[in-house]
Design goal:
- The protein is mostly helical and about 60 residues long.
- It has a domain at about 5-50.
- The chain is built from three helices and no strands.
- The protein has helices at about 5-25, 30-35, 40-45.
- The longest helix has 20 residues, at about 5-25.
Length: about 60
Amino acid sequence: MHQNVGGIDRVVRIAAGLGLLAWAAFGTGDARMWGLIGIPLLATGIFAWCPAYLPFGIKTCGPR
């Protein structure tokens, strides 16, 4: 599993994931369901690997 998510992309994913999870934790009703989208965002940011990028050959990280 090679990294395909780079610096700025990772920061945005982690921040958005944490924000959505906070919204889910403190929100009510629909906010809880929409906030759970933060889980995959946070995971892809932490592991620097996004399975949705694979079919398109997208890499936002620099060359190795």
